Amino acid sequence: MSKVDASVRGVVLAAAFAAVATSHPAEAQARSRASAAAAVDSIVARALQGGKAAGMSVGVVQGRDTIVLKGYGYADLELDVPTPDRAVYEIGSVTKQFTSSAILLLQERGQLSLDDPITKYLPDYPTQDHAITIRRLLDHTSGIKGYTELPEFGNFMRRHEPRDSLVALFSKKPFDFDTGDDMIYNNSAYFLVGLIIEKVSGTTYADFVKKNLFDKAGMDDSRYCSENAVVKRRAHGYDTGPNGLVRAAYLDHLWPYAAGSLCSTAGDLVAWNRALHGGKILSPASYREITTPGMLNDGSRLRYAKGLAVHELAGHRVIEHGGGINGFLSASNYLPDDDAIVVVLVNSTGPVSPDAIAAQITEAVFGKKNPPSTAFTGDLSRFAGTYGGVGRGRPMTLTIAADSGKLTVLTVGPNNSTPRVARYVGDDTFQIGETRYTFVSENGKVSTLRVDAVYGYSHLKRK
Predict the structure, then answer these.
(1) What was the pLDDT predicted at 161?
(2) How far apart are CA 221 and CA 267, in angstroms?
(3) 230 vs 10, 71, 80, 235, 236, CA distance in Å?
(4) Of 20, 112, 360, 437, which has the most beta carbons under 10 Å away?
(5) pLDDT tens digits along 301-333
(6) 166-208 confidence digits (pLDDT tens)
(7) Ordered domains of the chain (ranges, CATH)
(8) Measured between alpha carbons, how far is 343 from 357 in angstroms, rounded to an integer?
(9) Collapsing DSSP states into helix, strand and coil, what is residue 156?
(10) 81 burial level (CB within 10 Å; 0-12, 13-18, 19+)
């Protein structure tokens, strides 16, 4: 925690304790809420300082108590339009939990099964002798090549063509791995899920989501995005260029589709989290499905379920998903142990990370839970070496070094990272942030490095 963050948290806690000691319960609660809101305001102000992002909308709720729900900065820099309440953002891959929920509703109705082969609904899809089920699409373990990582998609995203043309582009590519062996975040998979939803339901993806999800959750300001529709309170998106912010690059919303083409507000995403995690959208069995991480062929348990990741945020258990699309970044977090929701939407891509802001807010408002520390007593040098395997869009290569009793990880590539020190968490597993590195030995010698980055899980072989 930085000195600034520690100070913010101290102000929040001190104010809360003082209020409890000197006021009636209702007054104490109001003062505590006001202090928490001030902490959030301070965190957002620092993030927007210097024009690193145009604007932001934040929702922080605990139970039925709204701590913050408002906009900051600007929805339009050219016209100096402040971010309004109920500002509409493109939420990118936060869309995926809506897509998964739609599939699970169809399963509840007996119209499909997660264990159906995708060729039951997409009979012409070339599976290249892989056994791909809908389940493998939802947890990114199909091995299908992701279209957003293909060089050809750079031109594709600006054109309006039949959807089949994109499927034809990625379906012919070699698989990244055998289905179920690894996990690589995959927008192609969710594009196919959207096609399955339309085939089974007999309606468009946009209409199915509106009727069965948006309307049920009370999300009146949410919609399938459009690059040309006039939308009230729409925040304009910005990318980061060499000299600062620029208007976001054009993207036809035919292509993000069920992987990332929904638009929403901070308030609507709070309503969605309340509805989804409050049992108003899915049956108990379907809710267990959408929040239970998948498993690889070798028995490795993921921390990604079906359109939702399940891990920790500032030490708190979190069920979440983020999103990134031209001009916009987003984070939608549900903290089950705190009965809390933290939503951060930013109308800029660049250095301002909604995930980092959500973590700071969680720590400031709900406290930070420090992970347990475990001392490593063996020989770190046996882990040292270079490991390589498949990664998202390019091969993944890591160099592991042991020096002065510390294990460091260096990502090798066009822009080599700075070596980062990993902490030991037990069972030959080390961790940096939320990424876990597990070393697997054969015949007494380390042969494989399992890299679990929450949104990806790869087996890297020692070179």
Answers:
(1) 87
(2) 9
(3) 44, 20, 19, 11, 12
(4) 360
(5) 999 999 999 999 999 999 999 999 999 999 999
(6) 999 999 999 999 999 999 999 999 999 999 999 999 999 999 9
(7) 90-366 (3.40.710.10), 380-462 (2.40.128.50)
(8) 10
(9) helix
(10) middle
